[in-house]
Amino acid sequence: MANHQRVDFEKNVSRALNDAQLRKNFKFAMGNFVVRRRTIFPDAVETEKLRATGNAIKKRALNKLPELLVQLEEKCTANGIQVHWAETTDEANQQVLKIMQDHNATRMVKGKSMVSEEMHLNKFLQAHGIEALESDLGEFIVQLNNETPSHIIVPAIHKNKDQIARIFHEKLPDTPYTEDVQELNAIARKTLRQKFYEADVGLSGVNFAVAETGTLFLVENEGNGRMCTTAPPVHIALMGLEKVVEKLEDIPPMMRLLIGSATGQLVTTYMNMITSPRKKDEKDGPKEVHLIILDNGRSKIYTDDQRRQTLQCIRCGTCLNHCPVYTRIGGHAYGFIYPGPIGKILNPQVEGLEAAGFLATASSLCNACEEVCPVKIPIPELLRRIRNESYANDSANNMDGRGYKRNWLEVITWRAWSIVNTHSWINAAGLKILTTLGLKPPRMGPLKNWTQYRTAPEFARQSLHELVKQNGVDNE
């Protein structure tokens, strides 16, 4: 998930907050998602039981992850699926390219895949003369407009129908301008159907992979995913190594949690179970199925018991929908593929604290994300861990870039604070001076930024001890 450009988060946030149309689009969309989730999970007690089940399933799978991945490979191979392993996004891109070249393929249609976004696959394939077309409607829209997704589940959530109408009119040849939603859908459908027919290779993500049976599960609402995985002669599936679950019986509760949290539905329109390529007596489906399992920093996260909880994520996006920060600035402000609360804990661990540690400060620690997470990831706890490691000594922990915010001024300041507060006579003398003068803290360094939006506190003329003594209250 390498992000080669330095992210100016403060500038991105300022731009987003001053974009009235963006704020309006998000206000409408986010409120709708929150209501739909509440409607689909009306019983708080039953919902909590279901979340506990999801948490247990993911923890069990992660505890057995190495052996489950080996089992998945064995089962998939026995079923006729070719399994490839990629430690980095560069390796994964090269594997996709090789499969394309082995089949003299120049055209790919893609279903929704966050892993392919991590890989920046479209840009990579384009540089090698290969067309990679997004077929998910939201992904199709942002690709036409040369953007990245703004949301894990709803990529074009930052656009309204008027903006989409303008994009279609300007980017698709001979397309009349229309704001009618049905007509816009028909335009996209007509364009994509021809691409499904012409594509040499179809690519998809993987929502869950079952080690017990070697089955790949995909959920969707548009049918494009099914077209990508069945119409072209070759299907490539991309998954992060954490997507494996142990048993087939784990799927129903996980599906219930994923779909309800992501879209507020009991079930999606399409649920795809892929176990093998086309068999001799079957009339449709790909002749080859390839599964690429990507690490990209996940195995390092896995080695730490606390950070491992990050890998429980099922990419439902509900933490984004309930986050007071994300809902006001949108996904692009974060500057990384994964925005919102999950991005604040995942990106710093993958990219390193120096590159992405600032994301952990973009939180009020209100706990809304943890309260709705279907697999109970303690996101606020992990945010505090990332914040702490940003200032920690090099020996404190194993997160890349740890201690990058540490500076001598701060070290000296806290050392002085420790001395003042562990020596009573120094503390008393200092308080006497401050309360006598009634000074305000100096507006310099970090306090300068802090007081830009807050009233600087002023030291009281009398200390609490003095007030207690003055009013005759026992101070023992």
What does this structure look like?
The longest helix is centred in the first third of the chain and has 21 residues, at 20-40. It contains 23 helices and 10 strands. It is an alpha/beta fold and 476 residues long. The mean pLDDT is 91. It has helices spanning 9-17, 20-40, 44-63, 65-79, 89-102, 114-119, 121-127, 137-144, 161-171, 181-198, 224-230, 251-263, 298-302, 318-321, 326-329, 340-351, 353-356, 368-372, 379-390, 408-422, 424-437, 446-450, 464-470, and strands at 82-86, 107-110, 131-134, 201-204, 208-210, 215-220, 234-240, 244-245, 270-274, 288-294. A hairpin with a 4-residue loop joins strand 5 and strand 6.
Would you kindly provide a brief summary of this structure?
With 476 residues, the chain is an alpha/beta fold. The protein contains 23 helices and 10 strands. Helix 2 runs antiparallel to helix 12 and helix 20 (408-422) crosses helix 21 (424-437).
Rg, alpha carbons:
26 Å
What is the strand tally?
A: 10
Mean pLDDT over the full residue set: 91
Q: In the CATH hierarchy, what is the class of the domain at 41-299?
A: Alpha Beta
Instruction: Give the structural class.
Output: alpha/beta
- The main sheet orders its strands as 1-10-7-4-2-3
Architecture blueprint of SSEs:
Blueprint: H1 9-17, H2 20-40, H3 44-63, H4 65-79, E1 82-86, H5 89-102, E2 107-110, H6 114-119, H7 121-127, E3 131-134, H8 137-144, H9 161-171, H10 181-198, E4 201-204, E5 208-210, E6 215-220, H11 224-230, E7 234-240, E8 244-245, H12 251-263, E9 270-274, E10 288-294, H13 298-302, H14 318-321, H15 326-329, H16 340-351, H17 353-356, H18 368-372, H19 379-390, H20 408-422, H21 424-437, H22 446-450, H23 464-470
Parallel strand pairs: 1-10, 2-3, 2-4, 4-7, 5-8, 7-10
Antiparallel strand pairs: 5-6, 6-9
